[in-house]
Amino acid sequence: MTAEFTAVFRKVPGGYVGYVEELPGANTQGATLDEARKNLIEAAQLVLEANRELSQREVTDHDIIREPLRITAA
To answer: What does pLDDT average to in each consecutive run of 10 residues of the chain (74 residues)?
Structure first.
């Protein structure tokens, strides 16, 4: 799966903090901007995996339909 999100980084004493605007819970920090970027990708992947796992647990006893959803946001 490939998706595009908005990463936001802020310089702080000791490095950078970052988060994904569209993905609550995906945030991180790093000593350098490159490190913060790398860490944010990992954080976002972990949040998406955890959300998918939680969702699958909740619907195991239900008749569900799963399909791709493509969204274009302004």
So the answer is: 89 98 96 98 95 82 81 74
